[in-house]
Structure formats: C-alpha cells, structure tokens
Amino acid sequence: MKRLIVDLDDVMGDLLTPWLARYNWGWNDNLTINDITEWDIAKFVKPECGEKIFQFLEPTVTGYSLWNNMEPMEGAIEALGVLSEKMEIFVVSSVSGNYRICEYKDRWLRKHFPFLDPKKFYFVSDKSGVCGDFMVDDYHKNLIGFNGMKILFDHPHNANIKVKDGINLRVHNWDELFTMLLVKL
Fold first, then answer.
1. Residues 6+ apart with CB under 8 A from 127
2. Which of 9, 10, 14, 138 is catalytic?
C-alpha cells in the first residue's frame, strides 16, 4: 500500500487565518494571507511585534490555542476520507521544539479527521527522516531529502519557490491533490 505523508498546518487545516486574526486584533493591523510572500511571517508584521508573532502559537493558560479556531482546508476531509481507504496516511506536523502544542494538534485531528489512525500522527521538530511515496507540505524545506514525490501545497508564502527547486509538483488545492494522487495509485 502506498504511503502519503501530509502536513497539518496550512495543508490539512487553515492555521494562517486564526493566526492573523489574533495578530491583527492584538496589534491593530490588517495583515492578510496574501501579504505574506515568504515563509518568515515576522518580516511582515509590525516591527514592534516582530518575533513576538510566534508567541501566538503558544497555548494560553486558559487553554486558548489557534488550533481551537482552525478550520479544515476546503476539500481536505473528503479527499483524505477516500484516500485513507486506498493508501496509508501519516500526518507529520512540525512543532518546532514546542511540544506543548501537540495535544492541541492531536485533538484537532481527532475531531476533524476521525477516520485517520491517531497512531500515525507524528509531531516533530525535523521532518527530514520521514519516508513514504508522497509528501505534501507548504514549507519547501520540509520536502528536502524526502525519498518520494515532493508536493508543495500552494500558498502566497511559498509562491517564490519553483518546482525545479527539488519539488516535483505544486498543487493549489485539495481537489487538485486528490486527482493527482488517484492517478498515481
């Protein structure tokens, strides 16, 4: 059975929308997803915020987390529901050393993707060791070294990355990804 490695944040679920809503509210700004044209979001926030933008990824004492307000990407539930019957699906999500967010990510996955096997949810700081037939991620550097087909999930923050830069394919949405994977099975 073929193996799909899929990223959670901004591939399965739309993390940027609640993240920017929280930032815009807290810093009285109107930053949009389309304004972020590189991976490092700190370059696009107000200078007085800077690296503090990453503090919003931390769950609060009251239990608030961005993952409580994240919605699934359009088409992700339906596509993964069908694909889960045809291939092994592993969710590999970066926590950048902040393992406190694992429980929030795990809870979100169980709520929105109950048909996926929680034993195949991996929360890591480094994705370079994962193996499979296909890997889809929105951060091109996570695809480096992957031994299968490298698929970049399109967002404005990765628009400057070319398919020739070690990426096999760029997909713009779950319908496109689903169609491509069905052909490859």
1. 92, 94, 137, 142, 146
2. 9
Catalytic pick among 7, 10, 14, 138: 7
Q: What is the pLDDT of residue 136?
A: 98
9 is catalytic: yes
- Label residue 37 by pLDDT band (50, 70, 90): very high
**What does the DSSP 8-state code read for residue 141?**
H
The yes-or-no answer on residue 175 being catalytic is no
To which CATH superfamily is domain 3-14+70-184 assigned? HAD superfamily/HAD-like (3.40.50.1000)
pTM of the model: 0.94
**pLDDT tens digits, one per residue of 124-155:** 989 988 999 999 999 999 998 899 999 999 99
So where are the chain's domains?
3-14+70-184, 16-68
